[in-house]
Amino acid sequence: MLATPRIVALCEEATVAAIAGQLADGSTSVGTRVEIDHMNPSMVGDTVVAHATLVDVDARRLQFTVTIADSTRRAVAVARVWRVVIERDRFLDR
């Protein structure tokens, strides 16, 4: 079975990929909130795919919807993910 913590990781990966190359140089984003509905189990060995869509931008705050589906395209989970755009160097200096 696909564990819920792995679903969170897939959501994070999908949101980062969705905005890859879109942020200003020196910027990155960090996750701030995740809401997940884990609706269906996935079979051992099955392939799952996470698809993220940016649905709202409010200054530096980004909101995504993410769908994770199995190889039959059945929804395994749906999520809302929020990220904030930050200055990478300033963040790492903390």
Structure in a nutshell:
With 94 residues, the chain is of the alpha+beta class. Helix content is 22%, strand content 47%. It has a single domain (4-93), classed as Hotdog Thioesterase (Thiol Ester Dehydrase, Chain A, Roll), CATH 3.10.129.
Describe this protein with a few key phrases.
94 residues, alpha+beta, Thiol Ester Dehydrase, Chain A, 4-stranded antiparallel sheet, 2 helices, 47% strand, elongated
Note the topology.
Layout: H1 4-18, E1 27-38, E2 49-58, E3 61-69, E4 75-87, H2 88-93
Antiparallel strand pairs: 1-4, 2-3, 3-4
Alpha carbon gap, first and last residue: 38 Å
At CATH's second level, what is the architecture?
Roll
Mean pLDDT: 92
Q: Topology as H/E string?
A: HEEEEH
Helix content: 10-25%
What assembly state would you assign to the polypeptide chains in this entry? single chain
The total beta strand count reads 4
Topology-level CATH name: Thiol Ester Dehydrase, Chain A
Query: Any idea of the CATH class?
Result: Alpha Beta
Beta content comes to: over 45%
Q: Shape from CA axes?
A: elongated
Q: Output the number of helix runs.
A: 2
Structural class: alpha+beta
* Main sheet characteristics: 4 strands, antiparallel
Number of structural domains:
1
- The stretches of 5 or more residues where confidence is low (pLDDT under 50) are none
Radius of gyration, in angstroms, nearest whole number: 14 Å
Spatial strand arrangement across the major sheet:
1-4-3-2
- Name the CATH superfamily classification: Hotdog Thioesterase
Task: Tell me about this structure.
With 94 residues, this protein is α+β, with helices and mostly antiparallel strands. It starts with a helix and ends with a helix. It is 22% helix and 47% strand. The chain has a single domain (4-93), classed as Roll (Thiol Ester Dehydrase, Chain A), CATH 3.10.129.10. The chain is elongated. The chain is built from 2 helices and 4 strands.
